[in-house]
Amino acid sequence: MICEDGSFGQHSGPVVRPANPADLPCISAWMAPHLASGVLRARPLVPDDFLVSQSGCVALSWWAGGAIELGSLVSMQPGHGRALVQAALQRARALGAERVVCLTGAPGFFSRLGFEAVGDGAPPHRQARPCAALAWKAARCRLCPDASACTQVLMEVWL
């Protein structure tokens, strides 16, 4: 599915831009199968939180401690996921974030974009760092009804 409203123009590669209210039906449609399968968690669809490409989306949400969470990444065409993450990292820098974190079932993809695992398997210098943002997220994750079977990996990249 490709949702284009004409604002992307004629480009051969992915073009990423901030979402607007007219993008919400496409964002919802892109996310729907991933929500149904449990790969994504439901979130409010607020245009200001999302970036979109011709065939995908990603959301950014502030956490505590100068961290922004990257979530709801959906890409329907090769190359769009990478472009969406790179644009999200640029936006996070522009917003003054110190780092970007994500929960993912695709750690290899995020590793290739500079993210590192946090917690088990993380480099020792990351494990020793006290962090209010990660403690806050861990507390929220424990409330998830699927927490006991969760296979998501918490990853971060420092900006």
Give a brief outline of the structure:
Helices cover about 30% and strands about 25% of the residues. With about 160 residues, the chain is α+β, with helices and mostly antiparallel strands.
List its salient traits.
single chain, 5 helices, Aminopeptidase, 7-stranded mixed sheet, alpha+beta, 31% helix, 159 residues, 7 strands
List the helices and strands and how they pair.
Blueprint (H helix, E strand, L loop, with lengths): L16 E2 L5 H14 L12 E4 L2 E7 L4 E9 L4 H15 L4 E6 L2 H5 L4 E2 L6 H4 L4 H11 L10 E6 L1
Parallel strand pairs: 4-5
Antiparallel strand pairs: 1-2, 2-3, 3-4, 5-7, 6-7
Task: Describe what you observe in this structure.
There is one protein chain. This protein has 159 residues and is of the alpha+beta class. The protein has a single domain (17-158), classed as Aminopeptidase (3-Layer(aba) Sandwich), CATH 3.40.630. The chain is built from 5 helices and 7 strands, in the order βαβββαβαβααβ. It starts with 16 loop residues before the first strand and ends with a strand.
